[in-house]
Specification:
seven-stranded parallel sheet, 259 residues, 2 domains, Rossmann fold
Amino acid sequence: MLAGKTALVTGSTSGIGLGIAKALAAQGAHVVLNGFGDANGPMAEVAALATSGGQVAFHGADMSKPAEIEALMQFAAQRFGQVDILVNNAGIQHVANVEDFPVDKWDAIIAINLCSAFHTTRLAVPAMRAANWGRIINIASAHGLVASAAKSAYVAAKHGLVGFTKSVALELATTGVTSNAICPGWVLTPLVQKQIDAKAAAQGISVADASRQLLAEKEPSLQFTTPDELGALAVFFCSPAGNNVRGVAWNMDGGWVAQ
């Protein structure tokens, strides 16, 4: 379905980003991965699923730095022609009450979780407009729709990302370029595993009990959303059925925000 298209997925060496990259590769897209840590393993995982001649590349841009984001976008364009599908997934987390929140952590979360999506989008849109086809998919969160205590920076960034998504969708409404957000609930990523481990250690309970407690606090389904499920939703956005899906914040959250 996506043969000849190029997808750039930020923060895609693990977790949600890797799941989405694999799903897009399986539809035939060229995929540019981005993230920290080992890239060889994730590249091999994506390449194993590639179809229709799709290729995989990697760029290690730090998504808190506009100059490195520009280099990433230039790399993708030089390697595969242009970015047709932009998935803004890079994100970090820090948990603290607002009066105790480290200023450097606040700045980093806003930069990576929100500002990076502005920089990639502003650089991707001209070629998408010219081609009259493109997909901008911003990975927000249930925390882009509702709040939790001790997560002020993350909640602010994700609410901002949802608003950004809607504004871009309106600017592109008469074109073949769409902008949408996916708002997952709990997904068992390395980021969430750290929170579970911290909860277990703080309360002196097992990791399994901490997982159940985490889910029970927010997610009525009592089950994690999976990267594969999120990848399938991203593929839907890229399909002809997604042509007129514009500016949505689509929650896949086990009933979290329905409460």
